[in-house]
Design goal:
The protein is of the alpha/beta class. It is 45% helix and 14% strand. The strands form two sheets. It has a five-stranded mixed β-sheet with strand order 3-2-1-6-7, with helices on both faces.
Length: 270
């Protein structure tokens, strides 16, 4: 087939996967859904009232023509950003795809529809509840790293290296809960290996590809036990999942391959 024909097939397939699967495997969470996610985080990650972990992942692309530094990120590559929230089972619950690689995670959050509703407390999160019978009411919240703002419904680690023991314990517990989004990105990347290398496509085509991998990830996470066995993902006690080894191996092979190339192969943009 000609390149334009294959390009059209890929675009149409990715668009159809997103349109048909996203309402099923990536619906807008209800208050009951947020409450169930919080139960899972408390049971599996020992972190109560957490309704999701949030982070951004750079999807490397070829520098688009006449784009200046819009897609140039802090890792000295060109990318679009997948900003995502996951539950305690490595399923994505919210995604925002296509932001410029030059933007920070906090800036992308502020400009996204999800971020605006988060900052306005308009996500339908459960009402504040006590963790202990005599304690104060605690809000339900998301967990993120230092790139995100601190709010009632968005927790981040305490800053600094020399902090009191209780804050150090809190940071450790928060980091353990936030590991779910890191694992989710890792599983997504090694199962859909096109994300391991640069996408030699236009930003809008890259966005379609990432959308397709996200909904397929959620679908298979629910319907195929072999997609993500426990040993592949890691556990709460700090044991790292096998996906890390696959990423390291793939990166090493890719680096060796690039060094051997005298002239890069001709690529076609879509």
């Amino acid at each position: 087939m000609g390149a334009s024909t294959v390009r059209a097939i890929i675009r149409q397939t990715c668009e159809t996967l997103w349109q048909k699967l996203s309402p099923v495997v990536l619906p807008v969470p209800s208050t009951a859904d947020w409450a169930k996610i919080a139960e899972d985080f408390e049971e599996k990650w020992n972190f109560p009232h957490c309704v999701g972990a949030i982070d951004g992942k750079h999807i490397n692309i070829k520098c688009p023509a006449k784009s200046g530094s819009m897609y140039y990120n802090h890792k000295s590559t060109y990318s679009i950003v997948l900003l995502a929230v996951c539950d305690g089972n490595y399923k994505f619950t919210v995604v925002d795809i296509g932001a410029y690689g030059s933007q920070s995670d906090g800036g992308i959050l502020r400009n996204s529809e999800f971020g605006k509703r988060l900052l306005e407390n308009n996500l339908g999160l459960p009402e504040d509840e006590q963790l202990q019978p005599e304690g104060i009411k605690i809000p339900y919240f998301f967990v993120g790293d230092a790139a995100f703002p601190l709010r009632d419904n968005l927790m981040r680690p305490y800053p600094g290296s020399f902090i009191p023991h209780d804050r150090e314990v809190f940071n450790m517990r928060l980091s353990r809960a936030r590991r779910t989004i890191e694992n989710s990105f890792g599983i997504l990347t090694v199962r859909w290996r096109i994300l391991l290398s640069n996408l030699y496509v236009s930003p809008d085509a890259a966005e379609l590809i990432v959308k397709a991998t996200v909904v397929l990830h959620n679908y298979l996470k629910v319907n195929d036990e072999c997609y993500c066995p426990e040993i592949f993902a890691g556990d709460m006690d700090g044991k790292e999942g096998l996906w890390r080894n696959e990423i390291v191996t793939s990166n090493n092979i890719s680096s060796i391959g690039r060094k051997k190339l005298i002239m890069p192969p001709k690529r076609h943009f879509t």
